[in-house]
Design brief:
Order of helices and strands: HEHEHEHEHEHEHHEHEHHEHHEH
Strand content: 5-15%
Number of helices: 14
Radius of gyration: 21 Å
Largest sheet: 6 strands, mixed
Strand order of the largest sheet: 1-2-10-7-8-9
Number of strands: 10
Distance between the termini: 47 Å
Structural class: alpha/beta
Bound molecules: ligand AN7
Shape: globular
Length: about 350
């Protein structure tokens, strides 16, 4: 019989703070494909792999951290978990809390999360509140609830989340045999940037790899507090997942950048959408806009000559394109894409396809 992947806690238990007393709440997250990309390798001159985190149970990398956060919450007797979210965290928290038989309360910025993510939180049974404010307002309230009310916070300010998310670096090294030279990743709260760096560091200390990759993180230019070096009070971008003006892991991310000789950059919405198309059309991987910023980062840095030929590069693409599909139905000029309609006639179809018998 084929061996089933056991989820990140069981697969990497020796690197995580779990014991026999920890009830493992898992949906089989992790074990996601690391896909070689001939197209991006050709375009950049590097040796490029895409870590497709949209293949997780709720369609984003958040599941790696949520299995840990909810397992530990249940171990500590929590009955309600709470989170603020730009969408993916709420979808994941709702699913894992539902599985564990506890409540989830999620706070999202009103009108600013993708339809797929909103529908996930609802169908998994979350108590969902749309807050008249942005993500940063939601996180402030979630932290205050955690402090003063009987709820357990599962945002990435909870270290259990970062611990679960570091397993992605372990998987990459387990597949490649060593760490890559460069790692490209989207940045919102910078929890994942921090988590990957921790994973790479711990595996090197364990003798599983010989180096740390240079960690290259990217924000949307309308929402780029780390790049600009100041809080953005009114962040704006179509990449709603990373529409965050005051990142929770800001300080840790700067430490990780310094440790890895890393870099933070930014791209505007059109550059993000162009990168999303290149990845979908030429590598067969459909990601949500926020995730495509890793691709924009690779193409831009290689064009500037910052990536030596043949360097091994891993791009984390964090969430599935089906969560926020509307952007695929517009071209890069902002016009709706309307598929051609044709009569139910083979000759007519062949003609439309430009073919002759
Ligand atoms: C697809 O769901 O913050 O830098 O509340 O959904 O670790 O915050 C999502 C973040 C990148 C940024 N890509 O990760 C939330 C939330 C996708 C995301 C990020 C998010 P961090």
């Amino acid at each position: 019989m084929a061996k089933q992947w056991q989820g990140v806690i069981r697969e990497y238990a020796e690197y995580l703070d779990v014991s026999d007393a920890t009830p493992i709440v898992t949906l089989g997250e992790g074990g996601t494909p690391l896909i070689p990309s001939p197209s991006l390798s050709r375009r950049s001159g590097a040796d490029v792999y895409v870590k497709f985190e949209g293949m997780n149970p709720t369609g984003s990398f958040k599941d790696r951290g949520m299995t840990m956060a909810v397992s530990k919450a249940v171990e500590h007797g929590a009955k309600v978990v709470v989170c603020a979210s730009t969408g993916n965290t709420s979808a994941s928290a709702a699913a894992y809390a539902g599985y564990a038989g506890i409540k989830s309360a999620v706070l999202v910025p009103e009108g600013k999360i993708a339809m797929g993510k909103l529908s996930q939180a609802i169908i998994h049974g979350a108590e969902l509140l749309q807050v008249r404010g942005n993500f940063d307002d939601c996180l402030r309230i979630a932290r205050e609830l955690d402090e003063h009310y009987p709820v357990h916070l599962v945002n990435s300010v909870n270290n259990d989340r970062i611990e679960g998310q570091k397993t992605a670096s372990f998987e990459i090294i387990d597949v490649l045999g060593d760490a890559p030279d460069f790692h490209f990743i989207p940045v919102g709260n910078a929890g994942n940037y921090t988590a990957y760096t921790r994973g790479y560091r711990e595996y090197r200390e364990a003798g599983k790899s010989t180096k740390l990759p240079r960690m290259f993180g990217f924000q949307a230019s309308g929402s780029a507090p780390i790049v600009r070096g100041e809080i953005v009070t009114d962040p704006e971008t179509i990449a709603s997942a990373i529409r965050i003006g005051n990142p929770a892991s800001w300080r840790l991310a700067l430490e990780a950048r310094d440790e890895t000789d890393g870099f933070f950059g930014m791209f505007d919405d059109n550059e993000i959408l162009a990168a999303q198309r290149i990845l979908a059309a030429e590598t067969g991987v459909f990601v949500e806009p926020a995730s495509a910023i890793s691709v924009a980062g690779l193409l831009s840095e290689s064009a500037k000559g910052n990536i030596p030929a043949g360097s091994r590069c891993v791009l984390t693409v964090t969430g599935h394109g089906l969560k926020d599909p509307q952007w695929a139905l517009r071209d890069l000029n902002g016009n709706d894409v309307t598929p051609t309609v044709v009569d139910a006639d083979t000759a007519a179809v062949a003609e439309m396809l430009g073919m002759r018998a």
